[in-house]
Amino acid sequence: MKAIYPGSFDPITYGHIDIVKRASRVFDEIIVVVMMNPHKQYMFSLEERLEMVEKSLVVMGKITVDSHCGLLVDYVRKSSSRIVIRGLRAVSDFEMELQMAHANRRLLPDFESMFFMTDTKYSFISSSIVKEIICFGGDVSEWVPEFVIEAFRKKTR
Ligand code: PNS
After folding, report:
1. Domain interval for residue 11
2. Any idea of the CA torsion for 82, 2, 5, 86, to the nearest 10 degrees?
3. 78 classed as catalytic
């Protein structure tokens, strides 16, 4: 069975990687979709985010990486899977995820959301927190791969 894992991945963290590892024990194939919203400001371009996601995940096998600009349901509609994976770190994530799951199901009735819980050690990190810490020179090596740190360095040099 195949599943879709969408996200901004700006940048990918070990929290995202942990979700993919967990999901790959359940699904035969996971399509990781780097989403692009023209109204949103990203630190990394779509190409940079795609490259970091590919480097982090393709070595795991079973994973393909894609990108999409627009509504998630439009991507899902064209796909051969209706199952969308999302990660949950804490109860605070749940409310937004529930709203998205209901809205997506309203737009596409056979859209199915499945949630995986991150390892406790990643339960408080997000791409935004990583960006904040690294911008002020903090050490984020526990939360993102080395090549992500290198990409930050290139951006802020
Ligand atoms: O990594 P993120 O930023 O938490 O991912 C959120 C994302 C990109 C999956 C979500 O915002 C999304 O699906 N955006 C695409 C636009 C869309 O379909 N919006 C309606 C969802 S209710």
Report:
1. 2-156
2. 70
3. no
